[in-house]
Each structure stands twice: as C-alpha cells, then as structure tokens.
Amino acid sequence: MFQRAISQSGSVLNPWAYVDTASAQIRARQLTRLLGYSAGDNDNIYNFLMGASAENITLQQSNVTTERRASESLAFVPTVERETGSGGEVFLPATPLEILKSGNFTRVPYITGFCSAEGKGLVSTIPPNTWDQVNNDFEGFLPYDLNLTIGTTESQHAAALVKKTYFGNETASIANVEQYIK
C-alpha cells in the first residue's frame, strides 16, 4: 500500500491518537444523544450516524467529553475494529502498540518530525474557563503516556514539577502559555 511514510506532528503512540473500544462506544452514544437520538445497541447507533449529516456531526463532536484526562482534546480517533459495519476489511485489528510490538506491519522508510511551538494554533481555541480548570487541577492535564495514576503522590509531584518548570509561580493563562508549548 505505502512505499514510504512521513509522520508530521504526531504518531500512533501519542495518547490522543488512539482510544479503546469501550471509550469509543461511550463517545458515540454521547454524540447520538447530542444529535437528538437515543438508541440501545451499536447497530442502531451505527445506522443513525451513517444517516446523520456531516455538518451536524461536525458541529456536535466538540461537545463530546472524554473520560480519561483533560489532556485528551480529541474525542474521535482510531480504535480497534473487530469487524466493520459494512462487512469490509478491518483497518485497525489491534492497538498501535500491539501491532508495533508484534512486528506485523510493512516496514517502509519512515521520517517523523514536529514543528517548534506546534501547539500554538490550538491555544487560541481554548475557552477561558479551561484556564481555571488547568490551574485548579493541573494534574488532570498531565500527558496520559506518563502512566501516572491521578491522585497518587507520584502524580501530584509530577504535576507540581511540570507546572513550576513551565509556569513558575504564575497562574497558567493565554498570556504565558507560549513557554509551555515551545
């Protein structure tokens, strides 16, 4: 399929780039409720979403909340498929990490990269009340891939250290976030 690949601004191993199946189903149910539909089983949800307008889905998807951590800003990302609704070929048969560990993928020349201040474009879309959440619960904004359990001494210590490193004794805000995203 691919002869070479470039991954710019992220990888399949980023915590925001994959979600487990149970979380994906919860998010799909949230979306259908936001669109005014309430159904019990996955087939009904699938059929409803396939018939919903792309415009309505796009308008409502940002209102779907994520369960894990505040740092997961994208509600709809790839998940493992056991089967497809159309009976077609499964795109992602296992988690990205499982696939990489198994070695069951096509090896091609691969380049990865990122840009300086890459998150700067997203900062302008952060609602003002989110800054209150950041300052009141900085721990909830730690990256998921640190594998810390929220509420533990280790997690609280990491949050305090990250906050001090990037924001010093200042309150995190749009005015000083640039030093965090560099």
Automatic annotation (TrEMBL):
A GO molecular-function descriptor: carboxylic ester hydrolase activity
Q: Which keywords describe this protein according to UniProt?
A: Glycoprotein, Hydrolase, Serine esterase
**What is the top-level taxon of the source organism?**
Eukaryota
| Carboxylesterase type B domain span | 1-169
Q: Which residues form a coiled coil?
A: none
Please state which protein family the record places this protein in.
Belongs to the type-B carboxylesterase/lipase family.
Tell me what this protein is called.
Carboxylesterase type B domain-containing protein
Q: Which organism is it from?
A: Timema genevievae
